[in-house]
Amino acid sequence: MQLHRFLRSQRLPVRLVRLFSGLFAYGIAIAFILRAGLGASPWDVLGQGVARALGVSFGTATIVISLAVLVLWIPLRQRPGWGTVSNAALVGVFADLGLAWIPAATVLPVWWPLAEGLFLAVGLALLALASALYIGAGLGPGPRDGLMTGLVARTGWPVWAVRSGIELSATGCGWLLGGTVGIGTAVFALTIGPLIQLALRLLAVDLATPPVARSAAEELPLSGGAGR
After folding, report:
1. How confident is the model over 158-216, as pLDDT tens digits?
2. Using CA atoms, how far apart are residues 45 and 171, in angstroms rounded to an integer?
3. Whether 92 contacts 66, CB under 8 Å
């Protein structure tokens, strides 16, 4: 019951805890998926490619991409929130930390396909929980989600078409730059949506009915998810 009240609280300090713990977990989840060696998520394929092209770390490349995406917000008239800025600045840092701490799955003293599958499963589950945490904070959309919603608003195209076009473009550009595409990329694309939906339910995040602030002095109204 106490955990449920914590997850539903709209007090700013609680929301900040959810935001930063979610971003930290998101970076570690990315590291697990990359260390599985089965292929990265679409945006992380691009991150790998940019890192190789610029000769920088994966996390630095992720930050560069986030900043570039935020520049694209300007003509779309999107407004960032604290969650947006935190997402752009910190996910790459936490991903680099995870990559420094977590070894490649193939070096574990177990049958390597089992280790790769385990790393991928852990990464996907952790990423879904992390997404639910920072989406529930409601402190602004992530750079990539803001790009999607801005393009939908400006073009009138359906969400699925805009999102698919963005993801395919990121994957294609990343692959051309040397990013890793594999079965893990396909598994990510097919499973992350249902996993995040389950995590939102488990963590009591209601996107359809934002809670009303109890006190203007203590709480803020929910302003939208902080998706990546």
Report:
1. 877 887 888 899 999 999 999 999 999 999 988 888 888 888 888 877 665 544 433 33
2. 6
3. yes
Q: What residues form DSSP beta bridges with 219?
A: 11
- The CA distance from 224 to 140, in Å, is 6
pLDDT band at 219 (very low <50, low <70, confident <90, very high): very low
Residues 6+ apart with CB under 8 A from 130: 22, 23, 24, 25, 26, 28, 29
Tokens describing residue 158: 């359906």
Q: Can you give the pTM of this predicted structure?
A: 0.85
Task: Name the token pair of 66.
Answer: 């986030």
Confidence class for position 144, pLDDT limits 50, 70, 90: confident
Q: Where exactly are the structural domains of the chain?
A: 2-202
* 187 CA to centre of own chain: 16
